[in-house]
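User: Protein folding is very new to me. Would you mind checking the protein record under this note? It all follows right here:
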Amino acid sequence: MLTNREPIHIVWFKRDLRLEDHEPLQLALQQKERVLCVFIFEQLLLEDPHYSQRHWDFIKESIRDLNQQLEVYNTKVLTINSDIISACNLISNTFQIKTVYSHQETGILVTFDRDKSFKRYCKNNLITWKESIHNGVVRGLINRETWFENWNTIMAEPLITFSAASSDFLDLETIKTLETQCKVTNLETKKEKPFQPGGTSIGLKYLNSFLKDRHKNYMFHISKPDKSRKSCSRLSPYIAWGNISVRQVYQSTKNAQTSTSHKKQLSAFRSRLRWQAHFIQKFEMEHIMESSSVNKGYHKLKKNISDEYQKAWREGQTGFPLVDASMRCLNETGYVNFRMRAMLVSFFTHILWQPWQDASKHLSQQFLDFEPGIHFPQLQMQAGETGINNLRIYNPIKNSLEHDPDGVFIKFWVPELRALDLPFVHEPYLMTTLDQQFNNFELGVHYPIPIVDLKLKRKRASDVLWNMKKNSTVRSESLRILQKHTLNNRSNLLKNDED
């Protein structure tokens, strides 16, 4: 019986939920046997504290979009709650799995451990597992000497066009039979959600509107918490979950530069695509960053944990309006711009003097565009624990006055401050007793009194962290990190980084 099983190939979708520019899918379709597309809602990730329902809903929406595109081919993605080994065992009851095609995944430790287990499983079961490089990030690099040039080469390669026929896939009727043997994932989501919806179709609309018009003020508004919501590309979740490849975005942007009078804006955006890949590659090569500082010298840095401070930070109740507005906006919509993210981490780690590890899970759950390769290196860089980056202790009042001078963003997300005069919108704690009586407003009742002394805490953090830079372990680790991750043309890669 088993010898008569039909041989098939599996395309295992993970953070690459698209059909176009998808090498594993196209490699599978070039084979003689039929192809089955699979996405697995893995219990190890469903239970992982870095993820939340907003991520699973985005993925479900993306799969629904895939299935709509695949409908013309009389197939769909087999979407089940399981793990990859159990899924393959189940499929093997009916079919002979010849090859599993997928992209390499730069994920958290549990996914790396899962990949090692699956590699052993494939070897023991005579299954070939072929992984493709994803977005120019390479596994197993020792140094970065030619990384920049190689990434540029990959970005310049022709896009892989999705080309298939219905006969290339397992048909819907066959997939429905498989579904009766497993726990199928319900792809329905709540219709009313304040998040960007998932799927390639929506992602391309964001890309096209950005390249057509929204990019014109990209660099002018990139640091503005309110205006950046329109002028930035807003493509990050579609890149993070693979609705669109970085190469698609890179080439589309390069082509758009030929017909726009705002070339510098798109050039700056393209440089940030390289910047993104640079950090993901760093995380790929430094897996310790998920739990510990990449610079071992900072392992000696101890901070007293305050549940009160952390709760106020998570809920946007710190008494610092721009911090609270940014957190409330992030919690509600899944997005704030880069500067506000950096400020939130800086405030948590420097002003509240809390370990960055305690910020990690809340932020990853809230970021709709949670990308491990960006998340952990950025946490450590903003916390000042790499030893190679400039120490940035963001002043929330200074940022408020510079980037939200009219208080538009603050007033929207901290409505309890809307009726106050503008100076008090930025610094409500400056109100005298008479000011409070006049405005029918009481500090500590209608809005929190600042939970810390900003000036005192900024000085303490600066003194400690600058002093640590002199530590011999910090210095030797900084040298190691630089030698391992030094890039040719590094200045070009980071020239548009935001201070």
Q: What stands out?
A: The beta strands are 6-13, 34-42, 78-82, 95-103, 128-132.
